[in-house]
Design goal:
351 residues, alpha/beta, TIM Barrel, six-stranded parallel sheet, 12% strand, binds 5'-deoxyadenosine
Length: 351
């Protein structure tokens, strides 16, 4: 009879009961075996390379009120900031000088930036650094807006779906936000030929094994190029301040299952993972992750992009941040790849 591990290794979606078994009833040997299988699949596609993207958190203003998020509109205790176009281009310059060829422009849904101003920003980055990939991560927008940004040179888009279950989505967000809308955006982005990243929090309030099982089914169906997952971490100024955070093990198991399900997916070891454990990102890489996103934002704003409490950020300047990352990756037998780091399917297209 096939074991759960066999199914996972074959890249099968696991039903809720099987997930529950592997998450809560397995011993550490089973987990080790799972992480090993995920690492082998990753190595077959990417060797020991870790892709690096420079993350620029350019605004912490947000019009939304997601129950979990520290930069939600009604949190009056956050000190808000916006970076100017010049400041953003300076961040790219520093990243470029340090070898990065992939930038992620991330922000809250901030109406201050018009669709045209973001288009202009993307166009400027791509004009100055034509050999770099630009990823946008600025939330839900219309098909037309996404098209404008794609035509301005954006290569990729990150939009976490947060949960694949509509009822669960409703428990994490105010009713003006719907999973239907979110999924519509993800399919729009796919149809516009972006490399698309979706993702969810592990251990978000009210999440059950059946939801995690649904995540795997959705990922299998949607076939994203990237999947961003990290543990939920409560933030003191949100309605979820008293909720329990997501666990390290559950996050690692989900990373490994995603790697087995989508063998060549781009899978970051996220900042949230690095926040709940001093070696969280290294452990994530050991469970199948193959991307890291060092912060290129100016040092004085990093603490303000406080999605959750104790968010990991060093006071180090970008150059030091990147060399520290390289050192940590080398220490676990990996090496950082300073290139665009496209999804493998894009390279096939170019040939
Ligand atoms: N804990 C962990 N992740 C969070 N995010 C937002 N708030 C939290 C939190 N409290 C994640 C969401 C969002 C991404 C930018 O950060 O998944 O999509």
């Amino acid at each position: 009879m096939k074991t759960i591990l066999d199914l996972a290794k074959a890249g099968e979606c696991l039903p809720a009961e099987a997930l529950e078994d592997i998450l809560y009833r397995s011993n550490s040997d089973t987990h080790r075996e799972l992480f090993q299988a995920a690492s082998e699949v990753k190595a077959a596609h990417f060797g020991n390379g870790i892709y690096v993207r420079g993350l620029i958190e350019f605004t912490n203003y947000c019009k939304n009120n997601c129950f979990y998020c520290g930069i939600r509109a009604s949190n009056k205790t956050v000190e808000r900031y916006r970076l100017s176009k010049e400041q953003i281009l300076d961040c790219c310059f520093l990243g470029y000088q340090n070898g990065l060829r992939s930038f992620v422009l991330q922000g809250g849904e901030d109406p201050y930036y018009s669709a045209d101003s973001i288009a202009d920003l993307v166009f400027s980055v791509k004009s100055l650094y034509p050999d770099c990939a630009v990823t946008l991560s600025v939330g839900e927008h219309s098909f037309e807006t996404y098209r404008l940004w794609k035509n301005s040179g954006a290569d990729r888009y990150l939009l976490r779906h947060e949960t694949a279950d509509p009822i669960h989505y409703g428990r994490l967000h105010p009713s003006v936000l719907t999973l239907k809308k979110r999924m519509g955006c993800l399919y729009d982005l796919k149809s516009l030929d972006y490399q698309v990243g979706c993702g969810f929090m592990v251990g978000s309030p009210y999440q059950e094994p059946k939801h995690l099982a649904k995540e795997l089914l959705f990922l299998k169906e949607f076939q994203p190029h990237m999947v961003g997952i990290g543990p939920f971490i409560p933030h003191k100024d949100t309605p979820f301040r008293e909720k329990t955070g997501g666990s390290l093990t559950t996050t690692l198991v989900m990373l490994a299952l995603i790697r087995l399900l989508l063998p060549d997916v781009l899978l970051p070891a996220t900042t949230a993972l690095g926040t709940i454990h001093p070696h969280g990102r290294e452990l994530g890489i050991g469970a199948g992750a193959n991307v890291c996103m060092p912060n290129l934002s100016p040092e004085n704003v990093r603490a303000k992009y406080s999605l959750y409490n104790n968010k990991l950020h060093s006071g180090a300047e970008s150059a030091a941040e990147i060399s520290e990352l390289a050192r940590r990756m080398n220490a676990i037998g990996c090496s950082i790849v300073l290139g665009r780091g496209d999804h493998p399917s894009m390279n096939l297209r170019k040939e």
